[in-house]
């Protein structure tokens, strides 16, 4: 009863606000009804208006639904009008004798003609014409006998034509709607809410917007019809207006019963509803996968790029925030093949790639395809937007993959970047680092992004933690991996120190520590939280001698903030192994490997003289406790054996 009480309170406010308007309209209605009867009798004398008068006299006092207008010549003429001026002319000639259906048809025709640009009048010119004003007065007179659909359609037409929500006719129609709200079907509620979104704010509109979801939720339990199309439409309404999980689940239970009726028209909307972020939908994963399979089977008939983009966006968001269950690799692979088959533009493909980069999805054939587009038509690279180019570069970097033909593109890419070098808002550090992953180095570009003026301007944004981390990684890569050694200037030391502090701040969780210490024979064999002079942070460091045997190092090197990785490497002839724990999003989602940027960081660490052993947090957390020590020892021995053989 709480929701009903709230709803009643809204509508009581509505009725109080416009009670005076209703009284005034009722008086006007009586006067105009008398005037219309007189005019109808006068027109009866003229034979040319006999048919129109007959239709006028058939108005039922109970509403318009009982009126047969199939033989109404004037309604037929209005429907067949080619221009808004034709309807205006008919209103000018016949307005005083026209019936409610005729006036409603005139309004609807004006709406349709204006919408299809079959007019010489602007909306403002049309609504200010005396004929339009007279028509609105007539509709106000009939309004008390209009059915709900006629009232809602009139609101739709008047709104599109630009009639103010505060005008007399709009206020009258909205007041009538508020009185009929309990009698609305679920379809009418959803359609009305759609109409109200287009209207300016006023007490009636605001109250109806608040009331409609409440009415919908209280009535859906007994008004929901057994029709899959409408069930999905209502689920969409529930999701958009954030109604309760209970209501969502109720409608979903009906949808599942009718899922065999799924059609191309329905499947897109249903998938979008199932990926809505505000609802728990893991329990419907079987239904989701079934819909995705249907979608793949009918891809050529139902999908365009905007549809695919919408579904991929929702899927990726749901995967990122809720559960890995929502990731469907088969669907994404099928979409990529479909886009290549369609030969969509480079921009469209890059737009899709930008979303897939978020989850580390890699498709080598697509990257080959896009690279071929760039090499075969250089004007594409010259004209594409900067963001489009960055999405392509990031996708190649994520894959740690240099497509055939990319070497040819390197100078063209650097030239393209140089054109927008003064646009500070662009993600220069990420772009430069991604290019480094692909072996595309530019001293000029590094000089610019490392300069004091650039960095003080670029890093002055409040949300700059990621930028500091990217600067640090780019600095490390330039120091260790630049071909032939980087001879240019480096970032100011105070900025690098700040980036190191940000990167290493509050790192105090070491899930591997206990297993390593137990497996290696004690804490003397493991150093935790080791830093390099370049700002690297290694979770754990162990030293192995030939044969894969650990060396006790803690007595020689005490845990000390002044101790750096370089000190340990220089003091030992044995193999030092740095162990790094990587989160799931550090990996390519559809391949068993790290993303390119993380692999480049590992290379910068290895350049300091140690081997790097990456451990997946996802794999580690999936192990049972008694499996963890044997697993980490196998990985260490394998890394040690491989490196010792290589040496």
From TrEMBL:
InterPro entries registered for this protein in UniProt: ARM-type_fold
The protein, known as: RAP domain-containing protein
Species: Macrosiphum euphorbiae
